[in-house]
Amino acid sequence: MKFVADWRRVLRRAWSIRLLIIAGILSGIELVLSLPDIQLWLDWPPGIFAALSFLATCCAFVARLLVQQEPVHADKQDPQQ
């Protein structure tokens, strides 16, 4: 198993990475909101952030399979590309 040659650029630009970060944040929010002390003063429906995290993960899976266009103003690391 090897990293892609331009993995740093992929981390900055890929929608699948962005969506996975959002899914992780939503999972963390769900975890914090499930704490008993937080539940006393917030009246959120249980599982809402878990469902949003699942949706973001599904979108990340689809984004990983789609060809993503390179932005016109993208910075190039190698001038010969």
Topology of this protein?
Blueprint: H1 7-13, H2 15-33, H3 36-41, H4 48-65
Helix pairs in contact: 2-4
Whole-angstrom Rg: 18 Å
Shape verdict: elongated
Number of E-type strands: 0
Main beta-sheet annotation: none
Alpha carbon gap, first and last residue: 25 Å
- What low-confidence regions span 5 or more consecutive residues with pLDDT below 50? none
Estimated helix fraction: 55-70%
Mean pLDDT across the residues is 82
Number of helices: 4
- How much of the sequence is in beta strands? under 5%
What's a quick, concise take on this entry?
This protein is an all-alpha fold and 81 residues long.
Description:
The chain has 81 residues and is mainly α. It has helices at 7-13, 15-33, 36-41, 48-65. Helix 2 runs antiparallel to helix 4. It is elongated, with a radius of gyration of 18 Å. The two termini are 25 Å apart. The mean pLDDT is 82.
For this entry, give a set of tags.
81 residues
